[in-house]
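Below is the data:
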Amino acid sequence: MKDAPDRTLGYRLTTALLSLVREIFCRIPEPVAIFLGERTGDLLRILLPGKARILRENLSRSDLALFSKEEERRFEKRVFRHFGRLGAEFLRLPTLSDLEVSSRVRVEGLPDLLSEFAKGRGVLLLTGHIGNWEIALRRLSLEAPGRFHPLIRRIKSPAVNDFVDRHRRDFGKGASILADLGPKPLIRALRSGDVLIVLLDQNAGVDEGVFVPFLGRSAATYTSLARLSLLTDLPVLPSACHRDPDGNFRIRILPPILPDPGSDAEEAVSRMTFRYSQALDAFVREHPEQWIWMHRRWKTRPPGETPRQTENGGSPLGPAPTP
């Protein structure tokens, strides 16, 4: 019988190392921490050539393709540095008081969120791996501590998964819900009137999603959010948090997208998923270097798509619904 994860040597060593790194990043001045975070991004770009290749492939097949190899190289550096900096900002959450978070993170559209929250029926908040979604969780949780729940995938390493979950709960003020636990925790959170945060910019399998346009190319997108919206009769509020040039942050919350049942359930799901994808598309275009280009967003392809169509950006865009 295997030891429980928290009793294995590897688990304890990994946890200790992550805790040490966090302590270092919290003790050094913020400019130094940000510098180290960005240099870590530079290092990861070199150590993970496969991720850099995926970034370049994704970029070349989107409609944001750059015009020269030099532009592409600069963009690649900016993306990796963004995620290195994001890691530093995440680790430094314990150093920020609620007052500092409130002053450094500006929120646009907050009345829409608070209006839905006040109804006590639960709130569906849509976002993606854009900008700094962790500082956004901390800022929004100031409005209702303990009531915001990001829906996340389990990290393969139990030690890393548990460290990130504890750190997010203790310093991001949000209690994660693991996607592999099924729908019951989601329904329970919504029935309690809480906010469920769903990141919808990752590749879905053929049986899990529908193909809708994203950055100029047909992308398999999970339908779970649309189905949950229809099941609960709750609207969906698109949101994203970008980092501004001055190092502060701006959260934008758009007006709610209402459930649109229609006469055909699957058509309704496709139509709503299309609208969610278009909202995220617009957010990414604002600051494309702050999106997770290293993820195989377009891995699943529409049935019948030819290699040439795939190479040229997946045109035509497949069976995407009309808005």
About this structure: The longest helix spans residues 69-91. The CA atoms of residues 284 and 291 lie 6 Å apart.
